[in-house]
């Protein structure tokens, strides 16, 4: 057996009063304590892979021109992958139809499943609302002492475009316009922060990836421990950083989160049926968060008067355009 991860498990022998570890060493702790043991589980070490990729990307970006070949290689792999996915997506309506039909036919109690799905939707909506209307504005206010809702008003066009397209990347030009023209942010800040933000700053996707696995666990009748919830939250944040700024990317990343605690993917098709709405909402939250981040950075940054030689080089602009054209 290939061993990839460690998981704390209740061994179902709670009255034994023994805390065990993998070495077989055991000691008496408390007669009534729940016995826990550390076991190895099959599957990929998702948190490890995500952490490696993030550190790799950050280190690569620090190499500047010396890392350009590797950066270009991965940029092209990224574009090719997206083009292939786009081809497959033409078949997705048919695939989803059969997926959902199969799921419905194998579900014994549709009422209960419907209720769980409704509770999931309400939880997801509440999570996104609390995050975008309370947490993010609260942080923005603490950091800048300015009205965060004024930013939302100025960025309303970008938020609506995000809702309409379900893609942070497709919304990027509108976000830039709102930030530069209506929020009056220096283009040197907006053009640096927004493309990075659209790619890695995905609060809505993180909220989604943290809540959806709980639905899957409940649907499959699995109880999650506190440790599982922590791992889900961690993987949700990491996978949202790696998530693409295109429609439906969150669902693909959800599979990673499910794998991180060995949850089955049974029931995911129910999430797919409501994802047309969830995706739009979480994309709007992603874009809202980018606008607030730009506001915070601009608040703390004092830039010298614009020097034309500091503006983006033609090559960088070309690469940026290539990415935007090919990914959207
Ligand atoms: N569609 C989202 C975005 O572009 C990503 C996701 O699916 O969560 O920001």
Topology:
Layout: E1 5-10, E2 18-20, E3 26-28, E4 36-41, H1 46-62, H2 68-89, H3 92-106, H4 110-144, H5 148-154, H6 156-165, H7 168-182, H8 187-200, H9 203-219, H10 226-242, H11 249-260, H12 268-300, H13 314-327
Antiparallel strand pairs: 1-4, 2-3
Helix pairs in contact: 1-10, 3-12, 4-9, 4-12, 6-7, 6-12, 7-8, 7-12, 8-12, 9-10, 9-11, 9-12, 10-11
Bound molecules: aspartic acid.
Aspartic acid binds at residues 166-168, 202, 205, 243, 245-250, 279, 282-283, 286.
Q: If you had to describe this structure to a student in words, what would you say it looks like?
A:
By secondary structure, the chain is mostly helical. The chain has 2 domains: 37 residues, no CATH class; 273 residues, Sodium:dicarboxylate symporter (Proton glutamate symport protein). The chain is built from 13 helices and 4 strands. The strands form 2 sheets. The chain has a two-stranded antiparallel ribbon. The site of aspartic acid has 16 residues, from α11 and α12.
Name a few traits of the molecule:
Proton glutamate symport protein, 328 residues, 13 helices, two-stranded antiparallel ribbon, 4 strands, mainly alpha, binds aspartic acid, globular, two-stranded antiparallel sheet, disordered N terminus
**Secondary-structure element sequence?**
EEEEHHHHHHHHHHHHH
Q: Output the strand order for the largest sheet.
A: 1-4
Q: Ligands in the structure?
A: aspartic acid
Please state the second-level CATH architecture of the largest domain.
Orthogonal Bundle
Overall spatial form? globular
In whole angstroms, how far apart are the ends? 41 Å
What percentage of the residues does DSSP assign to strands (E)? 5-15%
In which range does the helix fraction lie?
55-70%
Radius of gyration: 23 Å
* Overall tally of structural domains: 2
């Amino acid at each position: 057996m290939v061993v990839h991860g460690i998981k704390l498990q209740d061994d179902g022998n709670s009255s034994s009063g023994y805390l065990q570890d993998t070495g077989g060493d055991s000691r008496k702790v408390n007669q009534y304590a729940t016995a826990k043991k550390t076991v190895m589980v099959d599957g990929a070490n998702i948190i490890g892979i995500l952490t490696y990729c993030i550190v790799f990307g950050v280190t690569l970006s620090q190499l500047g021109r010396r890392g350009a070949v590797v950066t270009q290689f991965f940029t092209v792999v990224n574009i090719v992958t997206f083009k292939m996915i786009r081809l497959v997506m033409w078949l997705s309506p048919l695939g989803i139809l059969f997926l959902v039909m199969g799921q419905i036919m194998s579900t014994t109690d549709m009422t209960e499943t419907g209720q769980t799905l409704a509770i999931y939707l309400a939880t997801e909506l509440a999570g996104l609302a609390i995050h975008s209307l309370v947490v993010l504005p609260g942080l923005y206010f603490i950091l800048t002492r300015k009205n965060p809702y004024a930013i939302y008003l100025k960025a309303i066009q970008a938020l609506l475009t995000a809702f309409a397209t379900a893609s942070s990347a497709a919304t990027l030009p509108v976000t830039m316009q709102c930030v530069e023209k209506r929020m009056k942010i220096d283009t040197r800040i907006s053009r640096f922060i927004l493309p990075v933000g659209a790619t890695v700053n995905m609060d809505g996707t993180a909220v989604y990836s943290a809540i959806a696995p709980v639905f899957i666990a409940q649907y499959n009748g699995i109880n999650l421990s506190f440790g599982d919830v922590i791992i889900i939250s961690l993987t949700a944040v990491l996978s949202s950083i790696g998530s693409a700024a295109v429609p439906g990317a969150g669902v693909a990343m959800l599979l990673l989160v499910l794998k991180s605690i060995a949850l089955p993917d049974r029931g995911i098709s129910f999430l797919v049926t409501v994802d047309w709405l969830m995706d739009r909402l979480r994309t709007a939250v992603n874009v809202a968060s980018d606008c607030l981040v730009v506001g915070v950075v601009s608040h703390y940054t004092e830039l010298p008067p614009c020097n034309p030689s500091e503006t983006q080089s033609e090559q960088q602009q070309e690469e940026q355009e290539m990415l935007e054209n090919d990914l959207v």
